[in-house]
Write a structure and sequence with these properties.
Bound molecules: thiamine diphosphate
Helix content: 25-40%
CATH class of the largest domain: Alpha Beta
Structural class: alpha/beta
CATH superfamily of the largest domain: Thiamin diphosphate (ThDP)-binding fold, Pyr/PP domains
Number of domains: 3
Shape: globular
Number of helices: 22
Number of strands: 19
Strand content: 5-15%
Amino acid sequence: MMYPTIPSAQTILLYCLRFNTTDVVISPGSRNVPLAIGFASNKKFNCYSIVDERSAGFFALGIAQQTKTPVILLCTSGTALLNYSPAIAEAYYSNIPLIVLSTDRPTYKINIGDGQTIDQNKVFGNNILSSNSLLQDVTHQTQAILKSNIQKLIKTPLSTASIKKQQSKIQDFNEELIYSSFFNAIQSKKPIHINIPFEEPLYDFISSATIKLSKKPQRLDVFEQKVSLDEFIPLFEKKSKILMLIGCSTPNYLSIKTRKKLAEKTSVVVLTESTSNLSHKSFFANIDKIIAPIENLKNKKAVFSNLKPQILITLGGMIISKKIKQFLRDYPATHHLHIGLNTPNDTFYCGVEHIKVDPNLFFEKTLLQTTVDLNYQNSWLELYNKHQLCHKNFIKQAPFSDLIVFSVLSSKIPAYYQVHVANSSPIRYLQLFKMPEVNSVYCNRGTSGIDGSTSTAVGASVVNKTPTLLVTGDLSFFYDANGLWNSYINSDFRIIIINNHGGGIFKILPGHKENKFFSSFIETPHKLSAKQLAKMYGFKYQNKKSKLGLKIALNGFFKKSSAPKILEITTSSKLSSDTLKNYFQFLSRA
Ligand SMILES: Cc1ncc(C[n+]2csc(CCOP(=O)(O)OP(=O)(O)O)c2C)c(N)n1
């Protein structure tokens, strides 16, 4: 292993090893050489090289989403760092730990006309857990510091002993900062940033570490809050309509035993989304299919009032369905409890109480102890069954459109694939179909951006044993085309692009109205195809334009191959939006 001679660089490397933070995504530069070579020369680190920092950020996010441990992002000085912003914001709102290490020029070289410098402090604003700079080592290149020393990095009187003393204080400060930042990232599952100033030369290394770290990681107890759970029993005993809504989660967040017991309680209705990754045959998986048709009914008030919960329990991260948000804002529960570590959101404006305990423990000690069991499930089940029949009838006769693409896809994705879905209409269409239980589904819903879906999926694929499929719209795909500029893509990686030649989502969002500006500035139609990109990046490529063509293509699409594959499906944006509107009208006639 090569250890940089610069003390702060060496200290960072040693803490990464101490915290077992070993996945490192490095973008090229010069200022980051001490760390880049330090990481790359040690076999304990898994280093990935990605040129585009925006893509690197999402790639790291994809890895951390799967491993649930922080991934290091390392870049040079200047605008390189700013390109991490979208991924950092996504990680912050999705509870994914990332550790950004930006390297920088010394403070006396900033804003004096030196190249590739910006103010790197706090560049992510409030979209990050913490952002701090290490102090510059004064024992490294002391003479270079003294040439400027406007900021008094070195204090007088000058003597070897005094510089050593100053360096010792700097080392203590830096260790404290590194330690607490890493600790917080791991515990809070959020991104953090450490900016590190280095003076040149940057290429000096030694073969063994000279620094002895002062701090040892403590055991991390993720569920810190000690709550008395007994007090919730009387609440659940009194209220008979309990609605549970599960946002983005990882598989097994709720154990099979807890799911089974919750499903048996008829006073509890569990609504899941594609990204909940927690299923049970008695949970309701397609929220919009139940809610949307009611919106068109004359007696919608009566129907919604009957479905209104008394207690709302949320778990996991963001909720995708706009329709359930609207329903729960219009018909709010008296109590909203959010269970688990994810940030609690007052999405339904009725106040939210955060209970920071393991949800399995919470249910076992509270709700599952109660005896009240009135049949709230039935009201939902009746509606679900009615709409399900209509759904099947509509799909049978609907024209080839985005809806039909998802109906075919949902039944053809092999069970052994993990599925990444891009924003925005792909994830919304998928919500209307039941996926096989075994497929885990991910989508960047922290900030719902279209800027990193491909890179995230590629990142997740490199650490996940199961093969990965990305389902994306055309704008999302072309936006993150650099996601394919990546030498870690496995041959079993698959991409399905639904190319409706623009932002089809805007035609199906509530309130949409056509006018002369809509097309050019909102839908942004184009004539691009992925064919040339596929060729450039070594993907096999097919294009399909019909239901039959799609079905035939899917029969061979997931089979083993020597190269990854892209399947581009061309649909009509107008026909797709009309079909979806007709679909919801049709369901409401049930
Ligand atoms: C970085 C970013 N810019 C803009 C948006 C707003 N936006 C949301 S969906 C969307 C269009 C997505 O189009 P496409 O990927 O083709 O999927 P479609 O909805 O057409 O199926 C845009 C521009 C966003 N979410 N993120």
